[in-house]
Amino acid sequence: MQRGRRRAASPPAQPIASVPLTRREVLAAERSAIAPHGTLGALIRAGIAHGAGQKVGIALAATGLALAVTVPSATGISLASVDSAPVPSPETVVTAASDVPISFAAPAIGSALNPDGQLKEKLKVEASNVTPQAAKGTLAAPLKVLTPTSPFGSRINPLTGSMGEMHTGQDYAVQCSTAVFAAAGGTVTFAGWHPFGGGNRVVVDHGNGLSTSYNHLSSIGVKVGQKVQRGDQVALSGTTGASTGCHLHFEVIVDDETVDPLGWL
Ligand SMILES: [Zn+2]
């Protein structure tokens, strides 16, 4: 150890090839309860302690897209879909790359009177390439009154208390049996019981990789394959599945991955 320390603390006076620590020395530094002195030792320790975590964090930040992970637990309750407790995280998560250009080849099709036409224009380059700024306001509210509670993103599970769970949608406080509306026109691709915590769930495909889902419903008013218009009632809100009370868990899904719905509403 003494030899390695002296080398690390002083400028390399020998050829580079002779400087690196042996595996034994690296292991000794890693094991040591006391921080080794010298820059090299500190770097080694920092690398060992933080390298992997940082990479993961950067990768997540770079994609900007949250993984739609639904992991069935031993009790059959999905961590990703357990809901309701608000989390002190007021900042909106940016959900897509911000430097992707959007084509407005036929702006006449989209207008304030034709929101689905507008959405279609946005999706011409595929949903995953639509910037949050461009996507904002393209989906209609799934409830008459939106009272946001638990936001999209990493949070502490309100039932299990586990840390760092991915909350795959935006929760809205709403009484049970309140009308739930399609956020845009499309085709119903799922209408039934979601085995991983969503309870009664409806999924509407809006085309070009964009879907929305409505969860914990008390009843479902549409069937798979049915075409719906923006604003059509598709269900009544409820608290079925992994839910701690009446609310709507609303998801926006881009290319099979959930993103922050607030970027689209
Ligand atoms: Zn939720």
Features:
265 residues; alpha+beta; Glucose Permease (Domain IIA); 7-stranded antiparallel beta sheet; 5 helices; 12 strands; binds zinc ion; metalloendopeptidase activity; M23 family metallopeptidase; Cell_wall_metabolism_enzyme; signal; M23ase_b-sheet_dom
CATH architecture title of the largest domain = Distorted Sandwich
Give the names of the bound compounds.
Answer: zinc ion
Q: Strand count, sense and closure of the main sheet?
A: 7 strands, antiparallel
CATH superfamily of the largest domain: Glucose Permease (Domain IIA)
β-strand percent reads 15-25%
What's the Cα radius of gyration?
25 Å
CATH topology-level name of the largest domain: Glucose Permease (Domain IIA)
Approximately how much helix is present in the residues? 10-25%
InterPro entries: Cell_wall_metabolism_enzyme (IPR050570), Dup_hybrid_motif (IPR011055), M23ase_b-sheet_dom (IPR016047)
Keywords: Signal
Protein name: M23 family metallopeptidase
Domain M23ase beta-sheet core: 166-261
TL;DR?
The protein has 265 residues and is an alpha+beta fold.
Give the helices and strands, then pairings.
Layout lengths: L1 H8 L13 H9 L7 H25 L51 H8 L9 H4 L17 E3 L9 E3 L2 E4 L5 E3 L4 E9 L4 E9 L2 E8 L1 E2 L6 E2 L4 E4 L10 E8 L2 E3 L6
Antiparallel strand pairs: 1-2, 3-11, 4-10, 5-6, 5-9, 6-7, 7-11, 8-10, 11-12
Give an account of the 3D structure:
The protein is α+β, with helices and mostly antiparallel strands and 265 residues long. The chain folds into two domains: 2-63, no CATH class; 81-89 and 135-263, Glucose Permease (Domain IIA) (Distorted Sandwich). 20% of the residues lie in helices and 22% in strands. The strands form three sheets. Strands 3, 5, 6, 7, 9, 11 and 12 form a seven-stranded antiparallel sheet that branches. Strands 4-10-8 form a three-stranded antiparallel sheet, with no helix packed on it. It has a two-stranded antiparallel ribbon with strand order 1-2. Residues 83, 150, 167, 169, 171, 249 line the site of zinc ion.
